[in-house]
């Protein structure tokens, strides 16, 4: 594989480096990833995170192992299956591993590095296409609210929802962003604020429970969120808290857009009921941890409900902003998601 460089992952001179997102924004530390166990741990601890990035990181690791020429086809197949199961909700991981397995079985081990590189470059291009389709939807002097993190820390390109925001900003539009801190792991408060500052985009950090008040006061012109899996009928899973944002946006007549590449669409999943939702450790809700260490504010053994994602039904979505275009509810209800993917020669 050639050297590859992105905000949160690098392949340099035969070594795979990952930016430890658990330590951001106050510490930028790079971790050397040398094995399947390393990558699985990094994904499960959200040192590597974000639906598209997870898939690309796993693909680069597999390509790296293949390039070392010290693994059999069966060992690489097992590695792909292990990586595929690292986190259950973001379908990009499964789609990417299936692409790598297809190459392994139809072309051979020596073609895996090339496929990993293709997937990397494809994500960069998909992010750019999404941004160009979405930017026209944001008018000048827009106040956009976003949830979790969907930028260059969640992809290997400019991002999805944040990519759209960044493109509109780069076009000279006056865009202000309300950033949901996104409990419990604070991807918004830690990572999106880091990205907004890096791109000099005006922004205001809020607690998740403040979003409805801003909508009621007419201070939000649009909500843009990412996705971890979009079902065939347009229902989608995203970071927990997205569903309540969609309900509040619907109630306050605020346009609500989901932004994703085609690699996030799961046409084999008929609707949101079929999307597996990852349950995570109680400690994430009982306290908080990061570069500073950890603090636990709940009584010992406090029972916790900690789904990492929730599902938003298609009827609450104003539009789906994909790399193939912007789709309305009637488009999606008529099966356009599947058609758009197939018409562009993209098969999942
Ligand atoms: C580019 S969309 C990324 C998507 O992934 C995030 O989840 P996590 O931080 O747990 O990987 C979140 O759901 C984002 O919307």
Automatic annotation (TrEMBL):
GO molecular function: S-methyl-5-thioribose-1-phosphate isomerase activity
UniProt binding sites for substrate: 49-51, 87, 187, 238-239
Gene3D superfamilies, alphabetized: translation initiation factor eif-2b, domain 1, Translation initiation factor eif-2b, domain 2
InterPro entries, sorted: IF-2B-related, IF-M1Pi, IF_2B-like_C, Initiation_fac_2B_a/b/d, M1Pi_N, NagB/RpiA_transferase-like
Keywords for this protein: Amino-acid biosynthesis, Isomerase, Methionine biosynthesis
Reaction(s) this enzyme catalyzes, per UniProt: 5-(methylsulfanyl)-alpha-D-ribose 1-phosphate = 5-(methylsulfanyl)-D-ribulose 1-phosphate
Annotated site, Transition state stabilizer, chain positions: 148
Recorded superkingdom: Bacteria
Pathway: Amino-acid biosynthesis; L-methionine biosynthesis via salvage pathway; L-methionine from S-methyl-5-thio-alpha-D-ribose 1-phosphate: step 1/6
HAMAP family per the UniProt record, alphabetical: Salvage_MtnA
Name of this protein: Methylthioribose-1-phosphate isomerase
Species name: Neptunomonas phycophila
């Amino acid at each position: 594989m050639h050297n590859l460089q992105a905000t949160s992952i690098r392949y340099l001179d035969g070594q795979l480096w990952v930016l430890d997102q658990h330590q951001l924004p106050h510490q930028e530390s790079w971790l050397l990833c040398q094995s399947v166990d390393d990558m699985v741990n990094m994904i499960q601890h959200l040192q590597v995170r974000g639906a598209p990035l997870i898939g690309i990181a796993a693909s680069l690791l597999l390509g790296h192992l293949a390039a070392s020429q010290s693994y059999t086809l069966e060992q690489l197949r097992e590695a792909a299956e292990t990586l595929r199961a690292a986190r259950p909700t973001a379908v990009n991981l499964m789609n990417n591993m299936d692409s790598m397995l297809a190459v392994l079985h139809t072309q051979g081990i020596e073609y895996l590095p090339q496929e990993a590189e293709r997937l990397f470059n494809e994500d960069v291009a998909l992010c750019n296409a999404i941004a160009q389709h979405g930017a026209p939807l944001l008018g000048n002097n827009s106040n956009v609210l976003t949830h979790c993190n969907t930028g260059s820390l969640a992809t290997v390109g400019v991002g999805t929802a944040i990519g759209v925001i960044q493109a509109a900003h780069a076009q000279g539009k006056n865009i202000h962003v309300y950033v949901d801190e996104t409990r419990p792991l604070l991807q918004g408060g830690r990572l999106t604020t880091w990205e907004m500052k890096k791109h000099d985009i005006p922004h205001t950090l809020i607690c998740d429970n403040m979003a409805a008040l801003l909508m009621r006061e007419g201070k939000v012109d649009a909500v843009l969120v990412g996705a971890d899996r979009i079902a065939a009928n347009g229902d989608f899973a995203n970071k927990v808290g997205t569903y309540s944002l969609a309900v509040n946006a619907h109630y306050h007549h605020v346009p609500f857009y989901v932004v994703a590449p085609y690699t996030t669409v799961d046409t084999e999943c008929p609707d949101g009921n079929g999307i597996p939702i990852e349950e995570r450790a109680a400690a994430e809700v009982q306290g908080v941890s990061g570069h500073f260490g950890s603090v636990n504010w709940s009584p010992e053994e406090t029972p916790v409900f900690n789904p990492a994602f929730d599902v938003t039904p298609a009827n609450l979505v104003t539009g789906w902003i994909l790399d193939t275009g912007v789709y309305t509810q009637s488009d999606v209800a008529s099966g356009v998601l599947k058609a758009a993917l197939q018409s562009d020669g993209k098969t999942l």
